[in-house]
């Protein structure tokens, strides 16, 4: 079993829809990261969470430490949000990654 | 700031050849990482460094070596390349407190 599980693997949405991507992990962690990998391959960091909730523009990330679960929400989705979204946990200098959720937003 | 830079962008190696993937960052980050990403798979940590002179193995270190003689540079060495090392390699650095990872653009390596 992977230490980091993401769902769904693939997600197609219409422009304007509310998107939720889920991440579950199996060990105690120091922090959880959400990353975005663009179609061209570049990777950018979206959030780092150790508790609660963070918001940046139309993106919201939440984490429940007790349930070992995090969600990434995108409000008013747009075709430019199409990318692979990756969650990763950071624990004792080690990083473990989920396989990613491929999001396609259609106009 | 250039951020994290990687060279080369693409490389084709023959089985048994060696090469060094270069990574540099100009943000004075102590923590640096090398990952590989196989098609359809998640990133896996190869090696990491918490500062100049200090390196440690990650999840998939076999077939690779690293060094960290300066804060800025973190090269990854492949000795005796094998087809299983065909992958995209990403270097990253971590800001103080672990708040944000900065990734290089990646190196696409094919071993034939």
What does this structure look like?
- The complex is a heterodimer of chains A (107) and B (112).
- Chain A has strands at 4-7, 10-14, 19-25, 31-37, 43-49, 52-56, 59-64, 69-74, 83-91, 94-97, 101-106.
- In chain A, a hairpin with a 5-residue loop joins strand 4 (31-37) and strand 5.
- The model of chain A has no long low-confidence stretch (mean pLDDT 92).
- In chain A, the strands form 2 sheets. In chain A, strands 2, 4, 5, 9, 10 and 11 form a 6-stranded mixed sheet that branches. In chain A, strands 1-3-8-7-6 form a 5-stranded antiparallel sheet, with no helix packed on it.
- Chain A is an all-beta fold and 107 residues long.
- Chain B is mainly β and 112 residues long.
- The radius of gyration of chain B is 13 Å and the shape is globular.
- In chain B, the strands form 2 sheets. In chain B, strands 2, 4, 5, 6, 9, 10 and 11 form a 7-stranded mixed sheet that branches. A 4-stranded antiparallel sheet of chain B has the order 1-3-8-7, with no helix packed on it.
- Chain B contains no helices and 11 strands.
- The A-B interface holds A 2, 4, 30-31, 33, 35, 41-45, 48, 86, 88, 90, 93-100 and B 31, 33, 35, 40-45, 48, 50, 56, 58-59, 88, 90, 92, 98-103, 105-106.
Largest interface: A-B, 23 and 25 residues
Order of helices and strands of chain A: EEEEEEEEEEE
Enumerate the spans of chain A where pLDDT stays under 50 for 5 or more consecutive residues. Answer: none
Distance from first to last alpha carbon of chain A? 36 Å
Largest sheet of chain B: 7 strands, mixed
Summarize model confidence as the mean pLDDT of chain B: 93
**What is the CA-based Rg of chain B, rounded?**
13 Å
Mean of residue pLDDT of chain A? 92
Strand count of chain B:
11
> What pattern of helices and strands is seen along the backbone of chain B?
EEEEEEEEEEE
């Amino acid at each position: 079993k992977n230490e980091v599980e993401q769902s769904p693997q693939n997600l197609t949405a219409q422009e304007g829809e509310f998107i939720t991507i889920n991440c579950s992990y199996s060990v105690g962690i120091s922090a959880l990261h959400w990353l975005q990998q663009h179609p061209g391959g570049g990777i950018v960091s979206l959030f780092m969470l150790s508790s609660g909730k963070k918001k940046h523009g139309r993106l919201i990330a939440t984490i429940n430490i007790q349930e070992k679960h995090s969600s990434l929400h995108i409000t008013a989705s747009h075709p430019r949000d199409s990318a692979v979204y990756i969650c990763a946990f950071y624990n004792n200098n080690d990083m473990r990654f989920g396989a990613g959720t491929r999001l396609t937003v259609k106009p | 700031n250039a951020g994290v830079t990687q060279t080369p962008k693409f490389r084709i190696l023959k089985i048994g050849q060696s090469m060094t993937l270069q990574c540099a960052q100009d943000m004075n980050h102590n923590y640096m990482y090398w990952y590989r990403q196989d098609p359809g798979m998640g990133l896996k940590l190869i090696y990491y460094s918490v500062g100049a002179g200090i390196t440690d193995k990650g999840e998939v270190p076999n077939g690779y070596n690293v060094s960290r003689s300066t804060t800025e540079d973190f090269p990854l060495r492949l000795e005796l390349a094998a087809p299983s090392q065909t992958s995209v390699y990403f270097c990253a650095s971590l800001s103080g407190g672990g708040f944000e990872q900065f990734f290089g653009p990646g190196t696409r390596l094919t071993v034939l």
